[in-house]
Amino acid sequence: MVKIDREQFQWLDSQLPNGVRPEGYTWHHSEVSGKMELVEFGINNSTWHKGGRAPGNWANSPR
Q: Which of 2, 17, 36, 37 is the most buried (most CB within 10 A)?
């Protein structure tokens, strides 16, 4: 079981074709249950949000 985002992101990176996340991109917890999205870092951080981390959403559960 993945306990922290860093571990989850490392696992997700390893699933990419070359095993490396493109520079300037980060993983986003989508509001869709279990869905992670690879998005540009600047876009992800341009507005405050919780995505799937919002209370009651899938990524807000204990790890």
A: 36
Strands (E), 1-63: 25-29, 36-40
Q: Which of helix, strand or coil describes residue 44?
A: helix
- Torsion over CA: 47, 53, 54, 59 (sign): positive
- Please give the model's pTM, rounded to 2 decimal places: 0.67
36 Rama class: left (phi>0) / alpha (psi -120 to 50) / beta: beta
CB 3 within 8 A of CB 61: no
Structural domain including 43 reads: 5-60
pLDDT in tens, 36-55: 899 988 777 667 666 555 56
Residue type, 26: T
